[in-house]
Write a structure and sequence with these properties.
It comes from Methylomonas methanica. The chain has 371 residues and is α/β, with parallel strands linked by helices. 44% of the residues lie in helices and 15% in strands. It has two domains: 263 residues, Rossmann fold (3-Layer(aba) Sandwich), CATH 3.40.50.300; 94 residues, no CATH class.
Length: 371
């Protein structure tokens, strides 16, 4: 059933789970959902200002494209000599930088995900950051402008440092024994796609580190993580227990659906599974047509590519490889359009089922046991 993003935000809140993971394609509405969720949990009043609002009143911490808007470049256009990344401070950045002095930890995290020779330098009042690069001859290139990807990594490093400190504080069961009451009212952490600029190795590491932080949380704090990246999703899925997983979809009329999914992206979202399910449905409903041979060949090709076979036909039954590959090739690529009939023969329908079953039974497709 289609819903508005506001209704989906309510669905997430009603679930009341420690960890909820959402997979969605880029442009679906993940960032807009983070805003709707924030408005649901902590709507801004007419008198509230983002800078003067007390940290102790915050109920949600979220990382998204809007978080990145807190950081913006002063490019020193007149002299082109000292570009700086300015920080539009809010309650959270003030706490992690000024009160907790996490600038060195942020630097360590940032260099880990980028380059150990790339160093941020915070201004004395933490209102700006400049960057330098140590070259091989020990000379320092100062006041460089980093790439957009490096900028995103730096902002994530600030956020990640804040998460670690926040979880550590909330893990102290007695509120009176905490070093700060800044997070006592915090209910949710919403993390929207933090991996857009990472290579695969660092992406996996970030996912493992984030999962470790989430698992270390012993308080009632709840986490929502969205991503468009299947690899990031899979690592989190395998690292975390007790999570609920969804796929967010947007329809042409502007409504959305949030569908619960079982399994990682390979079991829930991948195109080859869509092909497999489409063919299975056609077989079950006795609606097999000639184009299902094309889908079947595509499924064989993708499976062969994943498993490292040089030719997809090598996955066919050994005793009939040549015959069956010719049948599939002719049926899926025939140019004799005036002689092609859409309705396959009973033998062709049986062949579709035989070859699909062969692929599932012999090449590692997970089979659900029971109903």
């Amino acid at each position: 059933m289609s819903k508005t993003l506001k209704e989906i935000a309510q669905q997430l809140n009603d679930a009341n789970k420690k960890v909820q993971m959402i997979y969605a394609f880029n442009g679906t509405g993940k960032t807009r959902l983070s805003r709707e969720f924030k408005e649901l949990i902590a709507p801004k009043t007419d008198t509230e200002d983002a800078l003067q609002s007390a940290l102790t009143q915050k109920k949600i911490l979220y990382y998204s494209a809007f978080t990145e808007d807190l950081f913006y470049w002063d490019n020193d256009l007149q002299l082109d000599a000292e570009p700086k990344l300015k920080i539009h401070t809010n309650a959270f950045t003030r706490w992690v930088l000024e009160e907790q002095g996490q600038d060195q930890n942020i630097t360590t995290i940032f260099q880990h995900y980028t380059n150990e020779k790339l160093t941020p330098h915070f201004s004395s009042d933490f209102s700006a950051v400049s960057f330098s690069f140590e070259r091989g001859n020990y000379e320092q290139e100062s006041n460089i402008k980093i790439s957009k990807g490096e900028e995103s990594n730096f902002i994530w490093s600030v956020f990640h440092s804040l998460i670690e400190q926040m979880i550590s504080e909330l893990n102290i069961a007695e509120a009176s024994e905490r070093s700060t009451d800044a997070f006592n009212n915090l209910e949710y952490v919403f993390i929207d796609d933090p991996v857009s600029s990472l290579d695969e190795n660092h992406l996996i590491e970030l996912a493992v580190n984030l999962a470790g932080s989430i698992k270390s949380s012993q308080s009632e704090l709840r986490f929502i993580v969205t991503t468009h990246n299947p690899l990031f999703y899979n690592v989190l899925f395998n690292e975390l227990n007790g999570k609920v997983c969804y796929m967010l979809e947007r329809f042409e009329d502007g409504t959305f659906s949030l569908t619960e999914k079982q399994g990682d992206s390979n079991k829930s979202f991948s195109y080859h599974l869509h092909l497999k399910q489409t063919i299975e449905q056609a077989i079950a409903e006795n609606q097999v047509e000639k184009y299902h041979f094309t889908l079947l060949r595509n499924l064989y090709e993708k499976t062969a590519s994943f498993l490292g076979y040089p030719k997809w036909a090598e996955l066919l039954p050994d005793d009939k490889q040549l015959y069956l590959s010719r049948i599939i090739n002719f049926t899926s690529h025939s140019t004799l359009s005036n002689e092609v009939v859409a309705e396959p023969t009973p033998a062709e329908k049986a062949m579709i089922k035989l070859l699909l079953d062969h692929l599932k039974d012999n090449y590692g497709f997970w089979q659900q046991v029971g109903s």
